[in-house]
Amino acid sequence: MATQSTASCTGSTLLQPISDIINLPLDQVNFVAGQLFALLMAVWFRLYLHPSKTSPFVRHVVATLLGFYLALFCFGWYSLHFLVQSGLSYSVIVFAGLEHMHKYCFIVTLGYLIVCQITRVYVFDYGMYSADFTGPMMVITQKITSLAFEIHDGKRNMTASFPRESHQRMPSLLEYLSYNCNFMGILAGPTCAYNDYMAFIEGTCYQPRHQENANGKENGKHKQSEPSPKGDVISKLCTCAISLAIYLSLCKLIPVERSAEEDFINNTPFYLQVVYLYLAMLALRPKYYFVWTLADAINNAAGFGFNGYNKDGSPRWDLISNLRILDIEFATSFKLFLDNWNIQTSLWLKRVCYERCPINPTAATFLLSAMWHGVYPGYYLTFLTGIGMTMAARAVRYNVRPHFQVSDTYKRIYDVITWAWTQVAISYTVVPFVLLAVGPSLKFYRSWYFGLHLLCLLVVLALPVRSRRREAKDQQESTQTNDCSQKDKTT
C-alpha cells in the first residue's frame, strides 16, 4: 500500500520509511507532518513575530514563504498551480471593471480549479481519493472569490447581508498571496474573511472585538491583556488525537463500501443494513474532525481566530472553526447538520451563491457545491439527493413540527424521531460521496429501492413548502408590524 502510494505522491519522499512502517500512503503522512510543522511554526509566529515586535510586512513575508515551503513539501511542483490560480485571479481583479469584476474572477478561478480536477481524476490518477493538490486549491478558490465579492460589495455599498466582510481597498500582491497561501491555512484551510486575516496580521483583531462584546465587568479582567489561545489549542489537539484514534481503529472494520457489496445486500436483513450504514458513517466522520480541528488549532496557536468573550469572560477562539461536533452528531434536521458541518464552506456558499441567486437558490447552491468539490459522479449524486432532502426536511419542519410544540414531552419525542431520521438521511445521501463512482452508488440506492428519494418526492408534493427567503421576509414583516403596534400603544 505504501509502495504504491509513492508513485502517486508528488511531494517529498523524506518520510517514506515512516509511511512503510505505519502502512499509510506517503501523501497522507506528508500532510500530517506538514500540519504538525505548521503548528510549531504557529507558536513561534505568535511569540516571536508578534505585531508588537515586527511589522505587518515581515509577518506577511514569513507567513507566505512558510506556506510555499509546506506546499512544495506536500505537493512538489504541483504547488505552482496555487501561484498560477492566484496570479490569474489577481489580474482579473486589477484589470476588470468594478461592475463585473467579481463575476469574471469567480468564473476564472472556479474554471481553473475544475480543469485541474478533471486532469487529476481522468488523465492522471482516477480513483485516488487522498491528499492531493486540488484540496488546497479548493480553499484558495473560496478565498479568491470571497475577496472579489467583498471588494465589489464594499465599493458598491452592498453590505446588508455581510457588513463585516465588505472590503473597499485593493490588496497588494504580497497581501493577496499571504491571504491565499499562508502556512496556517495552505494545506487544510479554513476559509476566512480578508478583513479578519488583515486584522490578525496587523494585530488589531483583539481590541475591536473586546469593545463589541464588553458589557460591564464580565470582560473587565481582559481589558489590559491579550487573550491566550493556549487552553483552546490544547483542547482541540486532544479532540484531534481522539478523532484520529477512533478513525484508525474503526475505518477498516466497518467500511462504507461494504454497504454496496452484493453478498452484504443479499445476506443482511434490511434493518441491520440501516444500522451498519449509520455506524460506518459514524466511523468515517472522525477523519474530517481530525483534519479540520487540527487546522483550527494551528490558526489559534498563531493568534488567529479570536471571536470575543463568553459571558463568563473566557475568550472564544471559534471565528474560523469549521465544525461543531456535538451539534453534528445530535442534529435533529438536515439543515442543522449542514449548518454545523464544514461551516466556513457553508458561509462561502451563502455569500457567493445563495444570497445572490434570483431563481431557486437552494438548488443552485447544491450544484455549486458539487462543482467545487470535484468531478467524481458520486459528488453530483450526493448533492442532487441533498436538494430533495433539504426541501422535504423544510416541508416537514414547517407543517409537522408545530404540532409537537405543545408540551416538553412531545418536543422530546419529536427530537428523538427527527434525530434518527436525520442520521439515516445524511448517511443515505452521502454514500455516493464516499463511493465516488456511479455503478456502486446506484447499486446501493437500488438495494434501498430508492426509498428515501421517493419519500422526499411524496413529502414535497404533499406538503406545502416555503422558501427560507419567504420565511425571513414574513418574519421581518411580522417584526415591523409588532413594532408599529407597540408604537401605537405607546402613543
From TrEMBL:
InterPro entries: LPLAT_7/PORCN-like, MBOAT_fam
UniProt KW S-adenosyl-L-methionine keyword: no
A matching Pfam family: MBOAT
Keyword Acyltransferase attributed: yes
GO biological process terms on file: lipid modification
Subcellular location, record wording: Endoplasmic reticulum membrane
Protein name: Membrane bound O-acyltransferase domain containing 2
Organism: Hippocampus comes (Tiger tail seahorse)
